[in-house]
Design brief:
Distance between the termini: 26 Å
Low-confidence stretches: none
Shape: globular
Radius of gyration: 15 Å
Mean pLDDT: 80
Number of strands: 2
Largest sheet: 2 strands, antiparallel
Strand order of the largest sheet: 1-2
Length: 110
């Protein structure tokens, strides 16, 4: 993996605990590579590493599925006012903000 916890915490300035970061890292890195599939990935670039960090935070906080609601014991409440936003959509937006004008992101991603 191109992004380490050391890079995430010291250079990017992220605040996730190491275990949460490591659990989300494979999904985040695969997602950013998917965003860049058409244009190609430069895994050593700052934009790529920052995009992985941003996606990692989104996946750690929201997961990949629907955002909204909560569970207490066996009681679950779903928030349907969020218009179906998913953690994957939030991770995409966060990664694209970091990829910016690097030219790596596929322009067809919304």
């Amino acid at each position: 993996m191109a992004v380490t916890y050391e890079y995430y915490s010291e250079t990017y300035g992220g605040g996730l605990p190491e275990a949460a970061f490591m659990a989300s890292l494979p999904t985040a890195e695969a997602h950013v590579k998917w965003l860049c599939a058409v244009k190609g990935v430069c895994a050593t670039s700052t934009a790529y590493k920052r995009a992985v960090c941003a996606a990692c935070e989104a996946f750690a906080e929201f997961g990949a599925g629907e955002v909204g609601g909560y569970t207490i014991g066996s009681f679950t409440v779903r928030n349907y006012e969020n218009k179906g936003t998913t953690g994957e959509e939030l991770a995409t937006a966060a990664a694209l903000r970091e990829l910016g004008l690097s030219g790596m992101a596929f322009c067809g991603v919304r």
